[in-house]
């Protein structure tokens, strides 16, 4: 586990020209596209740290099926999400906009934020694809609103199977063959014995309760995603499948057969987390297998990414790597995630690509492919992933994040972190200090001032949050004192 991926940490980043937190700028020209609208599968996983995908060279966890996406496309080593916490990040992916721009600033608390959700004024990927003739389905974790107006089948999805909360129990812990492992954050507490509230698994527009508490939820999500692809591929419509695994999010539960494969990992918490990743990876394999079986893999766009980094408080993150943890923070490990993309008909394999990309790029890429002659909606902020995969230009893309009171910005090797309530601003040189431990703002005032101006402009442009900040907290992550925002 104590292994730092030095070659990747110090690799040269080739950056794009449009800031992810500003109006969309035309990216470099992409290669010629397929004439037929592609099918689209977006696989979003939960709390998966950057180093725990073996496509990037890590050895702790083998993810052969996720790696298949990279083998036929690209593994972006500088892949980012819109926020370092679940609900906010998902809102960015689904809309192609920084969520803070429409007041979706803070996470949704399952019990204390009644009425919080993705505003109906913001169109989801599914709502943009439906008018283009797509059949759409969502499977797994939703977490962008539980009320009817936010419900998936009212937000462009024809089908839904999953749960609406931020977390739920994978399976009844009394089920034979299931390992449930307490973490240092909940040691001594009894495991969940049931699913409650918005953690109950439901399906369809009627919100039918699904009686499946004796079956492992990761497998259940895969089953429904595979069935959807099988049925949709027999029709004449292109399809969009949003597969939102809650793995490997806490609580830590996994079938014994997967746990047994990692006997060499002595820490049961880390072992369970790794086994959960492996079980999820097998589900990704089944999805890819179904696409190949149906003869549609070449013209299916597959995107794989995590919603944020790994949460250090549970004790299962890869603490040998600077990007191995950071959920709730604006260290790199909070927003820099595994991010893989493939569309064989339109893009040849590119391997590891250092060009920075954002989850905000997913929607523009899909729309460009589905309707290449239509003008891109001006409110979208991202760029085309295929153009990014081929880009060899200068380091110039600006990325800005923020959930007040904490903000961050990155351009090239320079990364700025700012806390308004701590009255601190720090500048780090990622090429020399990927752990973000040495503040060099005093020696590089121009770079610090430039990024701070970008943060200030972003912060001043935002509307008031639609619901309140829950709390901030001082935390230590791998020797780095930083601030949580929730």
From TrEMBL:
Endpoints of the signal sequence: 1-23
Database matches in SUPFAM superfamilies: Alkaline phosphatase-like
UniProt name for this protein: Arylsulfatase A-like enzyme
Keyword tags: Hydrolase, Signal
InterPro entries: Alkaline_phosphatase_core_sf, Sulfatase, Sulfatase_N
Residue ranges occupied by any Sulfatase N-terminal domain in the UniProt entry: 38-370
A single MF term (Gene Ontology): arylsulfatase activity
Organism: Novosphingobium sediminicola
Entry's family note: Belongs to the sulfatase family.
